[in-house]
Amino acid sequence: MSVLLSKTAEYGVRAVLYIGRNQSKRVTTKDMAKDLKVPFHFLAKVIQKLVKFGIIHSKRGKNGGFVLKKPPEKIKLIDIVVALDGDELLKNCVLGLPNCSDKKPCPVHDYWRGIREEIKQMLSQKTVAELLTGEFKI
């Protein structure tokens, strides 16, 4: 379970990695949901957003399925996260306080700002290709 990303973004990253690992064939939402052990209907909505934002490509029909729209080295993690969750993680107060700002900081504002910048930098630098080379279970 991810403590930083929403379930939507977590499933989206996992789906993109799954598709990237299976680039030699088109994969279906049904196969992904089964293999990743995630709810089919929820994953289908995540996949629709990823198609809409140009991260994956969908082909209908007998030989249909999904493939990455761009090479894995051109897809940054931030592309997936922002497509699915927007950029709130990278802008909003970690405590969810609506009035928190640089002028009126919450008790953890300055600390979170540094962490948020590190997270943004990591998500902006890491590509799907880099994650695909790692030895981990999706």
How would you describe this structure to a colleague?
The protein has 138 residues and is mostly helical. Helix 1 crosses helix 4 (77-85) and helix 4 crosses helix 5 (109-125). It has helices at 7-21, 29-36, 40-52, 77-85, 109-125, 128-132, and strands at 56-59, 65-68. It is elongated, with a radius of gyration of 17 Å. It has a two-stranded antiparallel sheet. A hairpin with a 5-residue loop joins strand 1 (56-59) and strand 2 (65-68). The protein has a domain at 7-85 and 127-132: Winged helix-like DNA-binding domain superfamily/Winged helix DNA-binding domain (Arc Repressor Mutant, subunit A, Orthogonal Bundle), CATH 1.10.10. The chain is built from six helices and two strands. The N and C termini lie close together (12 Å).
Quick recap of the structure?
It holds the Pfam family Rrf2. By secondary structure, the chain is mainly alpha-helical.
Task: Write out the strand line-up for the largest beta sheet, numbering strands in chain order.
Answer: 1-2
First-to-last CA distance: 12 Å
Whole-number mean pLDDT = 90
The tally of beta strands, per DSSP, is: 2
Class per helix and strand makeup: mainly alpha
Approximate strand percentage: 5-15%
DSSP helical segment count: 6
Helix fraction by DSSP (H/I, runs of at least 4):
40-55%
Low-confidence stretches: none
* CATH structural fold name of one domain: Arc Repressor Mutant, subunit A
Query: Biggest β-sheet, characterized?
Result: 2 strands, antiparallel
The CATH superfamily of one domain is Winged helix-like DNA-binding domain superfamily/Winged helix DNA-binding domain
Query: How would you describe the shape?
Result: elongated
Which radius of gyration do the C-alpha atoms yield? 17 Å
InterPro entries: TR_Rrf2-type_CS, Tscrpt_reg_Rrf2, WH-like_DNA-bd_sf, WH_DNA-bd_sf
GO cellular component, one term: cytosol
Pfam families: Rrf2
Protein name: Transcriptional regulator, BadM/Rrf2 family
